Amino acid sequence: xxxxxxxxxxxxxxxxxxxxxxxxxxxxxxxxxxxxxxxxxxxxxxxxxxxxxxxxxxxxxxxxxxxxxxxxxxxxxxxxxxxxxxxxxxxxxxxxxxxxxxxxxxxxxxxxxxxxxxxxxxxxxxxxxxxxxxxxxxxxxxxxxxxxxxxxxxxxxxxxxxxxxxxxxxxxxxxxxxxxxxxxxxxxxxxxxxxxxxxxxxxxxxxxxxxxxxxxxxxxxxxxxxxxxxxxxxxxxxxxxxxxxxxxxxxxxxxxxxxxxxxxxxxxxxxxxxxxx
Length: 277
Description:
The chain has 277 residues and is mostly helical. The protein has helices at residues 5-8, 20-29, 34-48, 54-65, 69-76, 83-100, 125-133, 140-154, 158-161, 192-206, 224-234, 258-269; strands spanning 164-168, 173-176, 242-244. α3 crosses α4, α6 packs across α8 and α7 runs antiparallel to α8. The N and C termini lie far apart (49 Å).
């Protein structure tokens, strides 16, 4: 049985306890609602495409997706973090390590949680980067180094996880497109001069050099949308993000207020390091 006190000792990452799956985990550690805990873990895995050890994957998902004092400071201070806050973060990794190293699923008595295969596995550059960093993780220090590196390179939340966003009319918010697909730019046939101009202009933009706004004009099926999507994929590592809006949605006032406004501000902040298209 895992040490149920370890989660209560979290400091910088204490917001993890607000996640529904981990709130139910606390109950399960006390011998209650184990079925509900398993159900919540599976629901999260299917919702966002988490594979492998589900408990580990869910904890890592919340660590890179949810706001905490560590990732917000790293973003605000352009990659820097103080010695004391780093020590606190390591303390939290030590608290979480029994759940991250894969040894603490036995108490749930559900074998398929150890190597779960979701219907649509998550596959983004950011998730692949973290998986590679954690490939041989064997200590709390390994998790600390990997997550700090992730925060510095990608930030946190949706802006780090998705290459493209769309507007959710029902919930009045921007949402990441989890399985965004696009052609390779080299596979777009024809329009070589236009492609060259797009690439040169976008390369200047992501390098913080003078660049122009772009209006693509042409008949349906000539590759306008495909070209823009291909740019978003090519320059994702440089921080380029695609926002897909219908013409009618440009008038949506919620785009400029509340949580969506904060997401846009976060994206615009990343223009200093990783631009947004």
